[in-house]
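#struct-queue
[09:14] JT: dropping the first one here, sequence first, then the structure tokens:
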Amino acid sequence: RTGGAVRLLSREAHDACERNPLHALGLAEAACEIADALPDDYYPGDGVYELRGTAWKAVANASRYLGRFAEGFTAIDRAESAFKHLPNPLQHLARVSYIRALFFWKQQNHTRALELACEAARRSDACGDLEGFVYAHNLEGGILIRVGRVAEALDRFVAVKASAQMLDDLELEARAINNIGNCYTDMGDHAA
């Protein structure tokens, strides 16, 4: 029952989401039980609240992969509530907005998803979180292409490709290149 256990379980839950989301949910729920049992002042600097927020964010993410949106929204609300206790929560709140955007996107509420993705990008940019900014920007592009705003989506994906190269994130770069190709196809520019 330590912060290290919470961090480890949360990280393992995040890594397991794509392979085994049910197992990821179990790991994340265990992290929440430990984090919620720790006294509020167990770590300095409101560290317990960061642990709780991270654990609940892991539950939300696993719930998304399982299509359990109501549980996911509840979990991300709890994560946000925990993060708001931190002296500087901006980066964490940006990630909360990003996850909420993913939930709305999966539910095909593109208007709300786009608002939250833009909010996540703004917050990430404001706190210097390049990775968070790029992922939010990528989500914006995905939503824009779904709603037929292909030229705007193309701009996002070109920027994501360049940023992915800077981050040395080959998977994200490959996704951006694929999305760029999809945009050109939708625009009828098959040569590009």
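[09:21] JT: and here's the second one, same format:
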Amino acid sequence: MKPKIASVISKEEFSILKSVNNKVALMDLCKRLILNIFLVYLIFVTIRFSYVLTLIIWYIYSVQFQFWGYAGLGHEALHGRVFTSNVANQTLYAVCSALTWSNGAMFKDTHFRHHRAPFSPEDIEAKSEQKWGFWDLIGYAFID
């Protein structure tokens, strides 16, 4: 038997956790931007003396860069959960789509379809059956 959410967290606490705070969002965005710039800088510095270290840093950069896409910030911006301003969220969504070379219009359409009817035949985001062979796992882990 699953515990009810009210036994774990109060309505007030839940409301505070899910509330949008522009100041916090902007600070988190700045931190992410600084991290991106710093990792790119490290790549340029380390490429001169260690290809192995450069590859490790590039991998770290690549993993954290995915957050700009639809598995992170882009997804939240689409839902309007980053800033209180709808225009700011739409702009951030467009920037995230461009940064990750993604089709924002297509994702918007398919993602809202996914929320309307999850795991239905028209839900291309959440297939009920996935392949779990060796090369499939490599693809899921490294290619997204």
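[09:30] RK: nice, looked through the second one.
[09:31] RK: The mean pLDDT is 87.
[09:31] JT: good to know. The CA atoms of residues 117 and 123 lie 7 Å apart.
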